[in-house]
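Model: You mentioned two targets. I'll fold them one after the other.
Researcher: Yes, keep them separate.
Model: Target one:
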Amino acid sequence: MTLGLDAAAWTAVLLSLRVALVATLCALPLAIWVAHVLARREFWGKQVLNGLVHLPLVLPPVVTGYLLLVVFGGNGVIGGWLAQTFGITLAFRWTGAALAAAIMAFPLMVRAVRLGIEAVDPGLEEAAATLGASRMRIFATVTLPLIAPGVLAGAVLGFAKALGEFGATITFVAAIPGQTQTIPSAIYGLLQVPGQEGAVVALVIVSIVLAMGALIASEWLARRVRAR
């Protein structure tokens, strides 16, 4: 068995990094806002929102991918409108893979950030409010610095989940080599071909290295933040 990655495998690795990074950067701001709403606000339908946020965790990934195809596909309500109005196509494109990865990673990001917010003493925010600070200023200068470790944890969890997403992605965008084939779909494809054990092991090793690298970087950044 010979370990090694060919050009197609490296393309899958780079595409996975691109998809995971875009998914994390796009989903994180919304995850912070939703986590803050769930942690600090009381309103009718809060439990419904909480259930919708965490729904991708309990639904089979294939179901999520099918729903994405129905909604964001070429004939979908949103997908059709995007295609006709802006010429944007998500189904069977790498951007669709990023969307699927973001949706699957979103609950983990929200949960990590929400735990960080709930650990912050509300009295600190109330004290800032009594001094005349606006809600945005309070969040930017008081809450956000205190929850930075939770935000970093959520970002790393989201990135790792997006990097390893398979079910929803392959259902929504398939596994087109060079276009939508990420590391998980590349591994799945290689497993169907006899004699490709070496390439599979190489991709598995790359996945482990990337995941460990993200965790180590997150821990280092969190320590820097706490030190400040």
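Model: Target two:
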Amino acid sequence: MMEEQFDFPVSSDRLLGGRLTLLQPQDGYRAAIDPVLLAAAVPAKPGEHALDLGCGVGTAGLCLAARVPGLRVTGLDLQRDLIRLAARNAIANDLAARVAFRCGDILNFSETGFDHVLVNPPYLTRGSASISPNPIKAKANVEGDAGLADWVNCAVAAVRPGGSVSFIHRADRGDELHALLAQGLGDIAWLDLLPRVGAMAKRVILQGIRGSTVTLRGRRNWVLHQSDGRFTAETEAVLRDMAAMPIQD
């Protein structure tokens, strides 16, 4: 494969205990554990089709495809350079036959019928924080023309009846996210991601089912780190061994 050139430095990193190779920008926004945890929470099965909105370099979608054999994944992102990296990542991990990425805007996306939709949107509202001079990081972290309601509306419209929509977001926007999801989904499960026992959550994962009439299925905690800073055994299993992270009871 011919080496593709980018206008910014690119690093090669390993996820899922070395099972997944990830090319990503060396500077600016870089995938941490959020997309890995999000992917682990999606209740996908072989033969189904998932949509990764705001896919970036493909981290969440590729992690999901690696965990679920036979699953097809489509990824969408507004930044063309990230889509180019995502496509290379699919090839590098022998997943290009099942995972496809394309450049597009969620405000104009109209495809439907996906079994699952997963979303790791920008966490900050426009005007709530200073914008990074790095354009990749700025678009990944701060909402642009699309606000959180637009991300939710796109995800709900794209998923089939009975399918799941999963979001990861900042904990301080959990109530806002839940209210938006509840307009189009039911059976909403809420997972608070705690840095350690007794700490306040910094991230939440919310997941709902289209067509269900149950409003809130339940809310529980997931502890990420032990007191010594190491990951808990459950988190380690997700991050290193591709374990699922079911949040529906």
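Researcher: Noted. Anything on target two?
Model: The chain has a mean pLDDT of 90.
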